[in-house]
Each structure stands twice: as C-alpha cells, then as structure tokens.
Amino acid sequence: MSIKNKLKTQAAVVLTSEGLHGARQRIAEVRRRLSGEPHTVQYFHDVADPYCHLSLQLLLKLQNKFDVQIEPHLISRPASDIQPLPTEYWQNSWADTVRWARRLGFAAPQQPAPSDAGFAQAEQRLAALLGDQDFASKALQISTALWSGLDIPEGAHSDPNVARRAGDQALAAAGHYLGGSFAYGGECYWGPDRLGYLDGRLATLGLGPSHPPIVPDYSEPFPDATGQELEFFFSFRSPYSYLAFDRVRDLATRTNARLILRPVLPMLMRGLPVPKAKSSYILGDCAREARRLAIPFGRISDPLGAGIERGYALLDYAEAEGRLPEYCAAFMTGAWAQGLDASTDTGLAEVVRQAGLEWQTAKTLIGTSDWRTWVEANQERLLQIGLWGVPSFHLNGQSVWGQDRLWVLQDLMRAQA
What domain range is 402 assigned to? Predict the structure, then answer.
C-alpha cells in the first residue's frame, strides 16, 4: 500500500470513529448553549416525494414527544446526480413508503401520481405555513389531500420558489440531499430508518422520555422460505453492501431460501454519478449503522478501479471452489474494516487467504476479463427489476433496496410461505 493510501486509511479510521462522532455531538451542544439558541430540529420536505408524507407523520410524533422547536423547509426535487433514474427511484420510493406505513400503522399515500397542478398548489400552501407553530399537523392535512386526490385545503399561499431556494441552502449546510430528512446539531437523519438515532439523542439530552420509541423495534420469527429464491445485488465498493452481506447470508440460511449472489460494478464504474454530498453522508451513516449492528468498520481501503477489477477477476475461481460467499465477505471486510488494498498483491493475497482459497492459483487469474460477462448480465438484471443501486434484492416478484430492508424480505417470504 502506498503512503498516500495508508494516510487515507488512517484518516478514515478517525473520521468514522465513535469518539469523533460523540465529540461532534458534544461540541454542537456547547455551541448551542453559548449562543442561547433553543433545541431546534430542522425538517426538509419535498412535496413530490412520497417518503415525505410518511416523514410528516413522524415529525408530528417527534414534536409531541420532545420539547424542541421545529424548523421546516421546502426543498427542490433532487438533481440528476442524486437521482440518475428518477422514474425508477420514484416507483421504489412509492412501494417502500407503503410498506413502511403499513408497518408503522401510518396513513399511506393513496394514489401514486398527483397532478403537477396539485403539487404546485400544495407547495404554495406549505410555503405559507413554514413559520406556523402547527406546521406539522397542517402540512399533514395538505399532504393527505394531495396524495388522496382531494382538493388542497384552502388557506394562505406563498411563492414556493423563494422557500425552496432557502431550503436547498439549509439542506446542503446540514449535509444531506433528500427530502424526508431531519437534522439536529450537525447530524442528519433520513426517514424512519434513522429517526431512532435522533429519538435517542433527544431523550439523552432530557428533552423527552426515552420510551416508547417513535419507531418501535421489531423482532419477528424467521419464516420458512424453502423453495424461494433471493437474488442479492451488491458491489465490493458499496459499504452498505458490506453491512448487508453476512446478514443476508444468515437470513437465507435461517429461512432455507436459495441465495443467488449477483455482483455488479460500483456506480462510478457504470457511469452513474455519486456527488460528494452523498458520499460524505454515506460514510458517516454507515459508521453509525456499523456500530449499531456491531460490525467492524472504518479501516478503509477504497477498491475503486484496479482493486475492483482484480477482485472481480477471482469471482469465477471462488465460485468454482464453492467459496464465493466466503470470498465476497472476505473482500468487503478487507476493504471496509481491515484496510486491505486489493490493488496490490499483498492486500489481495490476504483476502484470498481469509476466504480459504489458494493465492498461487488466484494470482494467475488476475487480469482476466471473463468476469465482465457475468457482472454485466447482473447489471442488466438489476435494471430489469427497476433498480440501479446496491444492495438490492429481488424476491417473489418484488424488488427491494437497502441494507435496512431485511424485514421487507422476511415479510415477502412470510407472505409466500
């Protein structure tokens, strides 16, 4: 590993550490007290995002539970570098919102495509409510009408363009890029998956009770999925894929599902953009998720480029030896927790050893390109099921995206059993 890469790895260890995370939270509280500012939670609303209909219901629960001020913002639709395939993103968001609403006992959006005129009218009404103390409840009434195909409630209107510009600036300053997200004290929390972090943080500050949580913890028995096939799309460069990999293997084992591994190229190597704001948030989010899941994380050696190509060149060898899951797990652990540089023989040899394979055989395969046919077919399959990012899954005719959606897979298994 070069000195430059070693320095990057050491920097990643610090940036993802629990100590730095806690220090940032403490510093934010000191600054807030010194400035005399109240405890303020920012909320960012994209009127056209179905997730935001769900987030408004979470916002109302948050406001009722904690002694905090709510600072709402309207924001613009995501840029193309955030959502390279907007139609597919929207369809997945819609399906995922309905699943979450059912799980939480919330009202789900009732129609998938409000009119442009409906969106515009809703934005005008919401823009006029941004300073209202009852924003959450009034905004939810407007959102419910919008997503039910009903008339938007009458009331004051305001220019949403001005509000969106201010909201976009606030969202960028907070460090996020999507609607439905919350921000407090220098940290962002997107949707129901991450609200538990904010819930716990505010409770620790004595701003409200710690129980019950706004988003409950769920513990359900594993279903029997014998005969069901679970397709798992992942990338060696995706930290979320790393967090999901062993858990998905365990899920398949416990449920008797047949696991089909489908590696794909990282988005950047497929010509899909990953803006800095997104990559920065993902790193911090994966660090806190890894701590919650007790998964080692943070000693990172980015395999983008040569590391990926060398690593993928050994996929067929690993599969032929019956060690494909072990090899994939070893590679991602090496990249995201051990700082192993797969672009070097030293780093890749250690990955191969940990996977239970022979380096003398493996090193003769580096530089081959047969793997590209399989990976490209996996990428075509990923687009075919309406997704593009990883980790993604396809089970019983349904597409699912995200390392935090294993509960959806279990629900689909249970429904098919």
Answer: 229-416
